[in-house]
Amino acid sequence: MQTFTAAIRATFRYAFFCVSIVLILWALLPEYRIFLQSLLLGMSGSLMNGAVLFSKVWRVGQSTIDPGVRPKGTGMLTRILVAGFAVFLTIRFPETFVVSGVLIGLFLYLVLGSISVYRSFK
Fold first, then answer.
1. pLDDT digits over 96-122, tens only?
2. To pair with 122 at 20 to 30 A between CA atoms, which of 29, 56, 99, 112?
């Protein structure tokens, strides 16, 4: 469980580093603000989905150690609703967000998580 926790901690660290880079670019490049703020919306949704997924997987891991802890679902509906809400905001406010930036941002945690977990098992 320590390897999993270290991989998730590294994933969140890299994700917040990416968010800070996008925030700096948003401040420095006003001509790309719409795309960058769409990217930030997708990244925030991705981080929320990652936190939900981590809590569910952690709970399943704890249930193997302590039979009194029971996992309560997979969090799939919550993660779909977060991603759907980000896309809804994009469609509702097309002058503020673009779909491509939100979709790229939503894949941030998945890509970083895959890389971190792969590196931790080597």
1. 999 999 999 999 988 988 888 787 776
2. 56
